């Protein structure tokens, strides 16, 4: 009998849904792809509808619905902290409403879909653990999750064996490495939700001159864990305003004035970046890595295992991930494509499947193509709508004082060769293929690609399309079999979640994807996992001798494009040179 389980991350940033059928991941997507609001928080109804469509059933055909929240978790701890820190209660009303929404989820689903299967609450960090371990190829592994907070926990150390997970230790509220990173990110003048990756990019430009001070902010403990010096944080003493309801998530200021006494004045968002701010970013990354690697080493001492399954928002810290092999005794590491909170919808479903229902494992996530797909009919309809008079047909069509040429190339080899030649000529190409990516990275299905050999490509992309901070690097997608020739570490990373040093002799050949410190946040591309993207990169290698392309997400300060219409809109309103929609090529003449 077919067993279908829906997983849900709801009323939290990066809301998402995932579908699991007979223990295998079938479909998953973040709600932001439909709502067009980054990190959208709320009830992911459209993501749920997509997953149901992929399952091919109505809600009545779903056996269980797993949600990655457990509102009743650690009730006594919460009550005690509320009694001992009454000043924080005035900001707790929003969190109480949020928990009430989770508890009334069956009613919400029944109202939207006519009925609701039984809801299985799964503790947030257990869902994180399941999302990594049960998607990995490991029969047994250390499991580590690190994030801001979820269900009153920020860090979980566990061991996974087969279909079981044993929790060894938790770090509870108010102590959190993720919150530490977010507080210093705000202090550095980046207040937006999810801005931590900007500080990671900035870190390469600085020196860790504030390490001594930041070690005071997050002192280490003898057992390998950590605490926060709460003098520098508001979340316990006063509470922090948070907005998680049907829109863009927001979080208030986390740090107290004591942090300015320690580090000097905080940077305003409109203030120029100075060397001091760059040094602060480098110091933040250095101290985070000290505490993170201490957790890994402590876990390895307790388990003796060489394999690590890693999840949580901090698992997206690609700088730290890339140093795991050098700084610890880890031999194998697995981080799935949606390691942050979006991935907990899948983790919750897999937890119910394997732990609660006892079903055997049989799935390994090797690619990220789990989102919506659109065929030629939708592509032609989008063309007809956006190029009036074209009817979606091939040919040259007027647009904005110029012409847009539409052609079809059904031969995949010719399509990839022509696109590779265009990239080699310096064109910026939108590459829209197959199913959208699961997780925050564009990995060859919804990507903008360019020539990594051009020193000016970074400036070209920022001028033509991205309009983002100049210090942020662009990433290389490289043929998996060529990785050792170009990077000092050959360990595959299909999900672009590790940073490795580029070999010194190769750096001058690919300046557009070489960060200022000589590293690159690579994606290894295999012919097995993404054959068409592999063919494109291989064609570029034949054209130029370089087995990689520059890859950045297909968007312009918005969520990654989802539909063909959104891809065309981005192409038409920017100065992109070429757009490849499936077998259809759209170019400016």
Provide key terms for this protein.
589 residues, Nucleotidyltransferase, domain 5, 10-stranded mixed sheet, 20 helices, 22 strands, 20% strand
* Fraction of helical residues: 25-40%
Overall SS class: alpha/beta
Largest sheet: 10 strands, mixed
Widest sheet: strand ordering: 13-14-22-21-15-16-20-17-19-18
Commentary on this structure:
It is a single chain. The longest helix has 29 residues, at 275-303. 51% of the residues are buried. The chain is built from 20 helices and 22 strands. The chain has 589 residues and is α/β, with parallel strands linked by helices. β1 (4-9) and β2 (16-21) form a beta hairpin. The strands form 4 sheets. A 10-stranded mixed sheet has the order 13-14-22-21-15-16-20-17-19-18, with helices on both faces. It has a 5-stranded mixed sheet with strand order 3-2-1-4-5, with helices on both faces. The protein has a 5-stranded mixed sheet with strand order 8-7-6-11-12, sandwiched between helices. The chain has 3 domains: 4-137 and 339-356, ATPase, nucleotide binding domain (Nucleotidyltransferase, domain 5, 2-Layer Sandwich); 171-334, Nucleotidyltransferase, domain 5 (2-Layer Sandwich), CATH 3.30.420.40; 376-588, DHBP synthase, CATH 3.90.870.20. α6 (124-133) packs across α14 (344-356) and α16 packs across α19 (531-544). It is globular and about 70 Å long.
Give me a quick take on this structure:
With 589 residues, the chain is α/β, with parallel strands linked by helices.
Could you give the topology of this structure?
Blueprint: E1 4-9, E2 16-21, E3 24-30, H1 32-35, H2 45-55, E4 64-67, H3 75-84, H4 93-103, H5 105-113, E5 119-121, H6 124-133, E6 140-150, E7 153-161, E8 164-172, H7 177-187, H8 196-203, H9 211-217, E9 242-243, E10 250-251, H10 257-263, H11 275-303, E11 307-311, H12 318-321, H13 324-327, E12 332-334, H14 344-356, H15 376-386, E13 395-399, E14 402-408, H16 412-424, E15 429-432, E16 446-450, H17 457-466, E17 475-479, H18 483-486, E18 498-501, E19 519-525, H19 531-544, E20 548-553, H20 564-573, E21 578-581, E22 584-588
Helix pairs in contact: 6-14, 7-11, 8-11, 15-20, 16-19
């Amino acid at each position: 009998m077919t067993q279908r389980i829906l997983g849900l991350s709801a009323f939290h940033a990066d809301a998402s849904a995932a579908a699991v059928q007979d223990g295998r991941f079938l479909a998953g997507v973040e709600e932001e792809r439909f709502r067009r609001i980054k990190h959208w928080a709320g009830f992911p109804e459209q993501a749920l509808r997509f997953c149901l469509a992929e399952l091919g059933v109505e809600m009545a055909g779903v056996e269980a619905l797993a949600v990655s929240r457990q509102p009743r978790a650690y009730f006594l701890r919460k009550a005690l902290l509320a009694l001992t820190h009454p000043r924080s209660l005035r900001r707790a009303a929003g969190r109480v409403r949020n928990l009430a929404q989770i508890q009334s989820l069956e009613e919400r689903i029944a109202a939207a879909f006519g009925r609701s299967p039984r809801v299985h609450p799964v503790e947030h960090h257990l869902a994180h653990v399941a999302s990594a371990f049960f998607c990995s190829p490991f029969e047994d592994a250390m499991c580590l999750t690190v994030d801001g907070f979820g269900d009153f926990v920020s860090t979980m150390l566990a061991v996974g064996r087969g279909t079981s997970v044993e929790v060894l230790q938790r770090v509870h509220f108010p102590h959190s490495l993720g919150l530490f990173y977010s507080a210093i990110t705000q202090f550095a003048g980046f207040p937006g939700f999810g801005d931590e990756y900007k500080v990671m990019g900035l870190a390469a430009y600085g020196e860790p001159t504030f390490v001594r001070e930041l070690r005071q902010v997050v002192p280490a403990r003898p057992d390998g864990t950590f605490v926060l010096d709460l003098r520098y944080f508001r979340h316990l003493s006063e509470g922090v305003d948070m907005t998680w309801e049907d829109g863009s998530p927001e979080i208030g200021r986390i740090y107290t004035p004591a942090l300015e006494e320690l580090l000097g004045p905080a940077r305003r968002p409109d203030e120029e970046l100075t060397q001091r701010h760059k040094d602060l970013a480098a110091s933040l990354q250095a101290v985070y890595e000290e505490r993170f690697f201490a957790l890994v080493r402590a876990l390895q001492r307790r388990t003796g295992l060489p394999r690590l399954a890693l999840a949580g928002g901090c698992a997206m810290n690609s700088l730290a991930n890339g140093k795991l092999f050098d700084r610890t005794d880890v031999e194998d590491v697995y981080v799935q494509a949606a390691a942050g909170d979006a991935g907990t919808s899948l983790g919750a479903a897999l937890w119910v499947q394997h732990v609660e229902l006892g079903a055997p494992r049989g799935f390994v996530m090797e690619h990220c193509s789990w989102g919506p797909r659109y065929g030629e009919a939708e592509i032609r309809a989008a063309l007809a709508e956006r190029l009036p008079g074209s009817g979606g047909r091939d040919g040259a069509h007027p647009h904005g004082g110029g012409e847009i040429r539409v052609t079809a190339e059904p031969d995949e080899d010719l399509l990839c060769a022509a696109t590779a030649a265009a990239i080699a000529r310096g064109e910026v190409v939108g590459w829209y293929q197959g199913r959208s990516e699961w997780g925050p990275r564009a990995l060859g299905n919804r990507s903008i690609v360019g020539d990594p050999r051009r020193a000016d490509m970074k400036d070209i992309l920022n001028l033509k399309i991205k309009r983002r901070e100049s210090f942020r690097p662009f990433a290389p997608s490289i043929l998996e079999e060529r990785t050792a020739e170009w990077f000092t570490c050959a360990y595959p990373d299909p999900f672009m979640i590790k940073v490795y040093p580029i070999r010194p002799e190769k750096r001058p050949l690919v300046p557009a994807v070489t960060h200022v410190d000589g590293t690159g946040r690579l994606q290894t591309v295999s012919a097995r996992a993404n054959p068409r993207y592999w063919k494109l990169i291989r064609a570029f290698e034949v054209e130029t001798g370089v087995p990689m392309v520059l890859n950045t997400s297909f968007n312009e300060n918005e969520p990654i494009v989802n539909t063909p219409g959104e891809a065309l809109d981005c192409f038409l309103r920017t100065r992109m040179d070429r757009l490849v929609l499936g077998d259809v090529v759209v170019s400016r003449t």
